[in-house]
Amino acid sequence: MPPEINALLKPLEQYSDLIYFYFPLGIVGLWRWSVWILKKVVGVSYRAKKGFHWESVSVVTPVYNENPEVFQKALKSWEDNNPQEIIAIIDSSDAKCIEVFKEFALKSSSSKLIITDEPGKRPALALGIKEAKSEIVALVDSDTIWNLGVKRHALSPFSNPKVAGVGTRQNVDNPKTLAQKIFDIQLDQRYFDEMPFLSVSSDVLTCLSGRTAFYRRKVLLPLLDDLVNETFWGKKVISGEDKRLTYLIGERGFKLVFQSNARVYTPGVEGLRTLIKQRLRWSRNSWRADLRALFSGWAFKHPAFAFFLIDRAVQPFTVLLSPIYFTILLISRSFEGALVILVWWYFSRLIKISPHLLRRPRDILILPFYIIFNFAFGLLRIYALFTLNTQGWITRWDIKRLPKFAFFKPAPALVATTMTLLLLFSTLAVYKQSLFVSGLIGLEELSEPDINLPAVGFGGTEASSPPMAVYTVLPDESLSSIAGRFNIPEENIIKANIASLPNKSLIRSGQRLKVPILYPDVGIKSNYHTDMKNLPKSKITIDTKSDTIVVSGRGTHITLADIAFSTGDNYLIQEAPKIWYLKANLLIQNGVNLNLDKGEVEWLKLESNSNKFVWLKTHNGVINIDGVKVTSWDETKADFDMDYSDGRSFVAAKYSSMLNIYNSELSYLGYKPPPVKEASTFGVSWKIPRGSFNKYLLTGEVKNSKFHHNYFGAYVYGARGMVFEGNELFENVKYGLDPHDDSSGLLVVDNKIHHNGSHGIILSKRCINNVIRDNLIYNNLKAGIMLHESSGQNLVEGNEIYGNFEGLVVYNSGQNLVYDNLITGNTNGVRINMASLGNTITGNRIENNQNFGLYLYNGAGSTKIYQNNFSKNGVALYIKTKDNYIGRNTISANRTGIYLKGEASNNQLDENIIFENSFYAILSKTAKGNKNFLTYGKVFR
């Protein structure tokens, strides 16, 4: 094959199995379209018979339970066409229509009323035909409206003495409901496709519809006994009189003609349920007549007609192939293939009903419903085949006159229909299964991979202490004794807390200190003195330009009462016992310790409204919050500041600060900052300046506290060794907890993180050696946990993650360990992509996730996935990358167990137990030449 052709075909190689799967559907589609095109090509030469011909006409209409207004309108339309007589055979129980016809007869001398006690349309027609005096009888339904000229156009073909019957073109009169519009489309398809084709290619038509058909009376009279007393399989046939008459005439060699210029209209049924019942009745009539015509042999005297009947008999089975294909592709998650079928449905049906749309262009809006009902009617025809001898609902016979319904009678037909559908479905499913196993090589034994747990977090799964501790000084303790407690040099503690230690020998009971277990040299300020005799005193000033209270005094400890005493009520006021209202910014400077304790303050309100907001910050200081509620407050509304769009109060610790929060509640804080400002405004933040990694030692301890309705629940940027333990972070605008650039050594344990507007926890940009353990993470709008942009060597262990859009996402981040988690009930379970290499997924329960349990794509290779339990997911493992080890997993009760697709290659599937997956155990649709390796483990389905 020329290289240019090869280059064009190469992108299709990965879809080769899908193309092969489409092959049977393509053959059927080619057949269906060939037949349709043949009909259109043959039918294009059809012309209605022109020319004047006159014979006398009697209108014969059987009437039962008709709408009196419709009947009256129909009578008027027939009279306007000047027939020689109008004969109405009305059931004796239909008093209203009897009255309508009597009033009509007073003005029409050619009208004749026959009241009958014999039920059924066939006897009524026979009675009317016998009573008629004209050469031509028009058999008309009592709700059919004629255009002017119907009689004139219908009589034209009778100039040929071989013509015994003439059919009219029919439509729905002013369709309004969905049922009426669908029926109108179906009528147009019949009279634009079927009738012109048969009119040109055959002397016989499939049915001269009972709404209006013209017949030679002398031809009908000998046929009336066969019409009235027809039986099928020993049972008297009630409905289908129009089709029976059509075939009786055709069988005797007479010619049948369709006149498209003779236009009549019917109201059509208004409800879909009634339309379905009507179509079921017509389908039974059609099956009975067509099968009788084929098996009796006379139909084959008219080859085009016989071809049409055979094609129509096959059609309901072939029309169901397309939705079955669509369903199989959806179940197997071949969304591209399903989309192709969906687009084809719209395109093909649009072409086929385009003549109707020229009449009624607005009906394009119901095209989706038409497509659905087109398939439903195919299934209905199959059910009709299995209930041929059922005489069900009909318009011309009250249900009380039918045999009583037996509850279990339709059961065999329902079973047969269902079995037919299942047979088609299972045949295609097995065919698909046989195709989609390419690229798998069975081996007795694979090389043993290195599956030792990697050193992540604080050194492995057994380590639980973070590399930084916050220590509360006890009475009579010294730095030396504290250093001994942690087995680190005293100098390390001095360096970490140097801003708060003007005299290292004078530490106070209750003071909180950083204890740097792994970070001895971060944030050192060599110009600080640590042996000062005259200790600094606190200094509280007002920067009126920025409306900020500035507190300085290295090593000092202050409270809100101290600040209020110095500034007065214009800046900070105690509104009630333990309720404080801050009306200016509060900046805690270098080495100052601010203690917010429940003994003094239970609620700190930060002024925040549409005109201004205040913040609480520390630069190289310490803020301790214990047992306090800190919120924004809009005094004008006597409520929290709910609108973060114009800025809102926040709390922030910067540089080498320490912000500790215990047993507290911080809520309704923060907003998204403008691009030119440092991002410390998110709500409650710990942040070093951008690009200053290793220059500052920022940390804190957050325990047993609540963060809610903030912009971010809590935001960490460049902090070290922080602990988030026992907290609840919920209903925040964006993230629950967001450790960002270069945050490391964090311990996130025993928290509840839920109902946040984006991810529950996100570690983003070089966040390494963190531990996320034993958290309950649920109902977040996006991912429960996300490891993002070079965030590696993290441990995600023992978490319960459910109800999120995605349980865990690993994006461009490698060497992480995901261990012993329950990831359940999410839309997607675990998603790993963007060159995330060398991650380990082990010991997890990944179950009940809607789309997939674990998905590897976009270069996320060299992943070790072993000893996990995957159950009740859509696809348990969806692999599109290479060099992954998938071993010793239990994979059960999913739709598909393992799905290898596209660029998946050199993957090892080793000793997995795969069973009771509803669709596939292992599905392989890899690119040509890609190979994956499978040991002969326990694969049941």
What structural class do you assign from the helix and strand content? alpha/beta
Rounded to the nearest angstrom, the radius of gyration is 42 Å
Low-pLDDT runs of 5+ residues are 393-397, 404-408
Estimate what percentage of residues fall within beta strands: 25-35%
**What is the CATH-assigned architecture of the domain at 46-272?**
Alpha-Beta Complex
Domain LysM: 469-515
InterPro entries: Beta_helix, Glycosyltrans_GT2/GT47, LysM, LysM_dom_sf, Nucleotide-diphossugar_trans, Para_beta_helix_rpt-2, PbH1, Pectin_lyas_fold
Transmembrane segments: 20-38, 322-347, 367-386, 406-431
Keywords: Glycoprotein, Glycosyltransferase, Membrane, Transferase, Transmembrane, Transmembrane helix
